[in-house]
Specification:
The complex is a heterodimer of chains A (about 100) and B (about 220). Chain A is an all-alpha fold and about 100 residues long. Chain A has helices at about 1-10, 15-30, 35-60, 65-70, 75-104. The relative contact order of chain A is 0.20. Classes of the chains: A mainly alpha (about 100), B alpha/beta (about 220).
């Protein structure tokens, strides 16, 4: 599983690249205003299908077979980066929310 | 070759439709270790779609895949057992050739031995190669990667005749280790390398034994 997560940083690079600035911005907002965390989570949830749609439509279509040839399933190809990204988002927002409360 | 590897691949009852268009219906295909299976068919007849269904890239309405006598098939991770060369380039453009080979566990020096011009390309991004070079590098990767079967979709596209002959030699060499399915519009090349031949037409597969079978199905003109 860890191998697949590690590989997802290659095949899901586009997802991470799009999400990272959004996640960091959201974390900064959560640090100073913990009350907006539910709204940020909701926005993140809405952004997932949009990012997934862009990933599937804008990417080179046959590149998926490079990864399928390595034994990665189609579901793992699409969902691993999304799930990892979501987990990072939740952890970061939680930590920032906690720090925001401590500082505030 | 370890004994837990299947000698035979059976693909059966493949049905694929996109809306009202039926692409494949009851398609049947087999491959065996030690043999090259050729698949011919007109443009748009569904050859690539069939291969993509097997690999999990396209979801068919129905499909049955069996390795040897195994009771069940792990469709999700079929790439561990079948390597696929798609019609279009598939190695990520921003990946070095060395990394692509390393990830697939294939010795890069083998490619250099096969074609010396690649000795400077190990750290080159795949996107920097010419179309023909890229195709050769991909085809070599797919043939040399550890697998029980491999599927080559139009492997001879964009490569010079001298490389076609060398690739055919490599296919004949590698069929000792794995079953190989190959499809291309250079049908004379396919006929010369294939042990078994199928024609895909009107959504069905037909075994081909004689050139007349191809004429009868309208794939090649009559002489």
């Amino acid at each position: 599983m860890l191998d697949k997560v590690r590989l997802s940083f290659r095949f899901g690079r586009a997802i991470y690249a799009i999400s990272l600035p959004l996640t960091l911005s959201a974390a900064a907002v959560a640090l100073f205003s913990t009350g907006v965390i539910p709204t940020l989570l909701l926005l993140k949830a809405f952004s997932v299908p949009v990012i997934l749609y862009l990933f599937t439509t804008l990417g080179k279509k046959d590149e998926i077979y490079f990864w399928l040839n390595m034994g990665i399933s189609r579901k793992e190809y699409y969902l691993t980066p999304v799930v990892v990204d979501l987990l990072v988002f939740i952890v970061l927002i939680s930590v920032c929310g906690f720090l925001g409360n401590v500082i505030g | 070759m370890s004994s837990d590897k299947a000698d035979r691949l059976l693909v059966d009852s493949v049905h694929l439709e996109f809306g009202p268009k039926v692409v494949l219906q009851s398609v049947f295909l087999t491959a065996e270790r030690g043999k090259v299976t050729g698949v011919l068919g007109r443009n748009g007849c569904g050859k690539s779609s069939l291969f993509k269904c097997v690999m999990g890239g396209v979801k068919p309405q129905n499909m049955f895949v069996r390795f040897g006598d195994e009771a069940s098939t792990d469709y999700g991770h079929i790439g561990k057992r079948i390597k696929y060369l798609p019609q279009n380039l598939f190695i990520p453009r921003k990946m070095t050739l060395g990394e692509a080979y390393s990830l697939h566990g294939v010795d890069y020096d083998g490619l250099v031995t096969f074609e010396n011009k690649f000795h400077n390309y190990q750290r080159s991004m795949f996107g920097q190669l010419s179309g023909g070079e890229a195709r050769i590098a991909e085809m070599y990767l797919v043939l040399m990667a550890d697998s029980e079967f491999c599927i080559l979709d139009e492997p001879f596209t964009n490569i010079a005749p001298v490389y076609v002959d060398r690739m055919k030699s490599l296919i004949k060499e590698k069929k000792a280790d794995k079953g190989i399915i190959v499809s291309d519009h250079l049908y004379e090349e396919i006929i010369s390398v294939a042990d078994d031949l199928y024609l895909l037409s009107d959504g069905y597969t037909f075994p081909v034994h004689f050139r007349e079978d191809l004429v009868k199905r309208g794939y090649v003109p009559s002489l």
